[in-house]
């Protein structure tokens, strides 16, 4: 198991990225972690960690880094020697099994699609974000990769999210819901209504429309939506979690009794903080490409990078891409989304998708 890490991507690169990658190389069962980026910068950061000098890690030099503000189109035209592009080249050539980056997510998706191509049957790759719930975790898909979607895309997101929840999160029969502005059948826009009609006829464990509060309520395992809606939901939940922690800390400073109460509740509060901390989950997989690419938050710490490398390793070991390809190999026929046709195609997919 070899994982390439874009050492120059992220708000805290290369410091946090190098530290996280070296910690993963030391504590995880990996053959090699490959740090990709400016060699001098990486070596300078590596030298700060004396206890991590003998870990199974190496450096591949890349002259440039993709900036957060750069458009994917510009990156594809003029950043072929960037650390992100070189890392994906290593995966394409077979030098590594997975890539982890905290850089520009749009660029990572564009480069991955261009160089690795899509899995057979996949219309569009999607980002699958993991969220803590009252009784475990749920998946939000798509979390930002596809702003404008057709019904076929959301149907495939549902299939991919169901497989990821089943084999990575260990859900026996994941419940799938479609994000809308209400749970009644009359709610939603034209896109969600068409997808809702198709998923109701599928063999997935589809429970119907769900609302934004259900992402963390625990009543559903997979929440399906377009990338625009998903990214807004993702950023909103992150903001609420950060604000809650900040408000709690501010409240404990207002009185002696508040400080005493905080002292006795500290252990429980730390447990909640760990559950809502994105660094515990690391990064999100780009489902549907013919490879393994995990995209991390731009603010990723060393802990988050280590967690993302662990998640990428588990993804490869679980052979998720083969499972996705098997389930979606006939999905191009779902372009004909009429009632009888959709029902017939779902019957053909039954043995591949379900149990």
Key attributes of the depicted protein:
disordered C terminus; eleven-stranded mixed β-sheet; 355 residues; alpha/beta; 15% strand
Structure, described:
There is one protein chain. The chain is of the alpha/beta class and 355 residues long. Helix content is 47%, strand content 15%. The chain has 12 helices and 11 strands. The two termini are 29 Å apart. The C terminus is likely disordered.
Write the layout of secondary structure elements.
Layout: E1 2-6, H1 15-27, E2 32-37, H2 39-46, E3 57-61, H3 72-78, H4 83-92, E4 98-101, H5 105-116, E5 126-133, E6 136-141, H6 151-167, E7 176-179, H7 190-201, E8 206-210, E9 222-224, H8 227-252, H9 256-276, E10 283-287, E11 293-296, H10 302-317, H11 320-328, H12 339-353
Parallel strand pairs: 1-2, 1-4, 2-3, 4-11, 6-9, 7-8, 7-9
Antiparallel strand pairs: 5-6, 5-10, 10-11
Helix pairs in contact: 1-10, 3-5, 4-5, 6-7, 6-11, 8-9
